[in-house]
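User: Could you go from structure to sequence for me? I need the amino acid at each position, not a summary. Structure tokens:
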């Protein structure tokens, strides 16, 4: 019997092309970025010219692990036909998020033309009005650090890192730069521009006109279901490839990236490998936020109340699927894309949600609801109200979130969890009244409908 070769670790010496020169800096070295923007960059025909220097968030662990394999990792595409592993080599350098010396160095290089970010909604430290939360302790610390030492102050937040890098770039005279956020936030380019400008104004008002002249902010819509890595994913790569890759990233076959804005310093040929460069992202953004992300949140809250753990489990439950279809009917009324495009997207979502090879945990999706519900549920409900309609198919998502906050289904993981716990105390109606007030929605018939649905969900039972 022939002995199996010993598992190997990924290495550029044996697996990948040489590291490309760094021309992109990325903030937020998570699974989604590695399944999406890093993957598009790796597949672009000019990939050899566009290496990425990526920085982690809080924990340095991913950077340490990836550095041990020269920035290479396996993307495990899990589709109905079986998993397909591929090695991604677009990460030319990886750093812990607190390596500010490296961050400033990259920003100061004239050849670096693009900064991308994937840090989730909460990471931008926004206030209720959408601007930077200047009362946030970490934001205040960043401002103080950069006022005291513009080119060496220690910062910890994403806006702080961006401004620290931009201060270094201005000092170096390095020229134009494009910032490309890839987070599920409406008009994310303008959102990041605002928090950066707010922080810059607080640190050094002379930076603001420089930003206007030298920095472009691109708006994007991103879509690819990418769950957390499990031991089963790593074992699959080991079995198929004889590669021991702790940084394996599982994902689905589907991927979409729509971008709108200017790239004065150039960009990879992402459009040659499926990305779309358009004049207006908003129609695609609404379709994705409402149909995919909205139904994901509905399944996360209502599906977990019914005893399900994953998206695939929940969508196979006829009751939960009917709730999703009702939500889609409500949201679709307010989309501007052609009805045939919307219908095709809904059909594709059902196939994606039903993919048993993707174990997308509802508890993961349920996190940070206070950041997600205002952009996934409220616009649809508000649009209905403007037409004189209260549709239970639209309001159930809000009711499911309230039910979740009241201790049913997936555990609550939210930066405002203590505040939210007090918000939903008391009877379902009292809880709904306070939530509607917080979200800027009227009470009246809407409160009656949502409170009734909360009561129904709290007394529902998991399917047999």
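Assistant: Here is the amino acid at each position, in order:
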């Amino acid at each position: 019997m022939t002995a199996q070769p010993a598992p190997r670790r990924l290495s550029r010496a044996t697996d990948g092309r040489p590291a490309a020169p760094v021309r992109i800096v990325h903030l937020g070295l998570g699974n989604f970025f590695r399944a999406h923007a890093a993957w598009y960059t790796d597949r672009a025909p000019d990939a050899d010219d566009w290496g990425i220097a990526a920085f982690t968030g809080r924990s340095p662990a991913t950077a340490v692990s990836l550095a041990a394999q020269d920035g290479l990792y396996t993307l495990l595409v899990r589709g109905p036909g079986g998993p397909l592993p591929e090695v991604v080599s677009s990460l030319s350098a990886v750093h812990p998020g607190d390596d500010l010396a490296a961050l400033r160095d990259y920003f100061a290089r004239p050849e670096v033309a693009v900064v991308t970010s994937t840090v989730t909604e909460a990471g931008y430290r926004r206030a209720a009005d959408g601007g930077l939360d200047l009362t946030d302790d970490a934001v205040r610390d960043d401002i103080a650090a950069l006022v005291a030492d513009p080119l060496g102050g220690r910062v910890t937040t994403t806006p702080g890192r961006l401004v620290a890098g931009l201060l270094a770039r201005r000092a170096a005279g390095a020229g134009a730069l494009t910032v490309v956020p890839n987070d599920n936030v409406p008009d994310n380019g303008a959102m990041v521009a605002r928090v950066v400008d707010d922080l810059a104004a607080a640190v050094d008002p002379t930076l603001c006109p420089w930003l206007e002249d030298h920095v472009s902010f691109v708006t994007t819509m991103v879509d690819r279901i990418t769950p957390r890595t499990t031991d089963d994913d790593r074992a699959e790569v080991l079995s198929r490839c004889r590669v021991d890759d702790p940084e394996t990233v599982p994902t689905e076959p589907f991927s979409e990236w729509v971008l709108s804005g200017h790239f004065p310093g150039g960009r990879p040929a992402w459009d040659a490998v499926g990305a779309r460069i358009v004049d207006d992202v908003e129609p695609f953004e609404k379709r994705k936020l409402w149909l995919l992300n909205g139904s994901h949140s509905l399944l996360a809250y209502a599906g977990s109340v019914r005893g399900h753990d994953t998206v695939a489990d929940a969508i196979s439950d006829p009751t939960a699927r009917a709730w999703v279809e009702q939500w889609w009917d409500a949201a679709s009324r307010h989309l501007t894309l052609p009805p045939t495009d919307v219908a095709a997207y809904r059909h594709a979502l059902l196939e994606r949600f039903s993919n048993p090879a993707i174990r997308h945990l509802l508890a993961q999706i349920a996190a940070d609801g206070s950041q997600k519900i205002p952009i996934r549920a409220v616009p649809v409900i508000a649009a209905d109200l403007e037409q004189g309609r209260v549709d239970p198919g639209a309001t159930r998502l809000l009711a499911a979130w309230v039910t979740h906050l009241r201790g049913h289904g997936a555990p609550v993981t939210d930066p405002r969890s203590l505040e939210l716990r007090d918000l939903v105390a008391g009877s379902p109606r009292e809880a709904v009244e306070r939530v509607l007030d917080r979200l800027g929605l009227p009470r009246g018939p809407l409160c009656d409908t949502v409170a009734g649905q909360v009561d129904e969900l709290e007394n529902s039972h998991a399917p047999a």
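One structural detail worth keeping in mind: The mean pLDDT is 95.
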